[in-house]
Amino acid sequence: MKTKEKTAIFMAILAAALYSLNSPVSKLLLAKVSSSIMAGLLYLGAGIGLVMVKFVQKQMHAVTNEKPLSRKDAPYTAAMVILDIAAPICLMAGLTMTSAENAALLNNFEIVATSVIAFIIFKEKISKRLWTAISLITLASIILTVKDASSFKFSFGSLFILLACICWGFENNCTRKISDKDPLEIVIIKGFGSGLGAVLIAFASGEHLPEIRYIFCAMLLGFVAYGLSIFFYIYAQRTLGAAKTSAYYAVAPFIGVALSLIIFREIPAVSFWIALCIMVFGTYLASTE
Description:
Order of helices and strands: HHHHHHHEEHHHHH
Largest sheet: 2 strands, antiparallel
């Protein structure tokens, strides 16, 4: 394995570790912050945080050879922003209706969405091993989504999280098309575009801003779990591609599950543990493909 690829894998895993904070900490904040406002604050925190990083770079006269976004990148950039408005709103709505560990584990469905979209639309190659991983992760996601197997009732919270994963699957592939451009610029556009969009939707639906301390906490979480995480994710995509980066990023839900179990001290149902075992095996196949 080349040094460049090893570095890209490290960045993908680092991005995952930072993002893993999202579900458990957001679940705590959602007791005080409405879902759409929360989604907006997370992205605004990412945008503002990376503007500060860019400012520090300039003050230190750091030389970068990053290419700025061009006019031909506009369709992918616009799609990226729109999808990043929808995805976190769906995730936050889902978190209000399901447990944090359930939500964290379901985030692995993003591998399925990203890989299938990369295969169908962008013609990325997927091996038999990765197809097996996709099948296992999908099976685990179905187990987590079915609330009552006897009457086949679905958990609406889980469905919202799966919808968020599909949005992020499309968004990952759009970002892949512009991943050779300046990652700071991409995340700043994501942050302000998606953040302001989500906040405007929240205000239009009658939601209100929370206390300033909760605004600060949500934005700090956004800087770490979204801003820095996306920044490293984009660097990884340059070398690994959308499908493989998503596979390495798959460690995030498991870290999120561990944090959720520690923070909330909930004992999940048997179906959760069955899904967890299947998901672990599927993720192992994906990440070692």
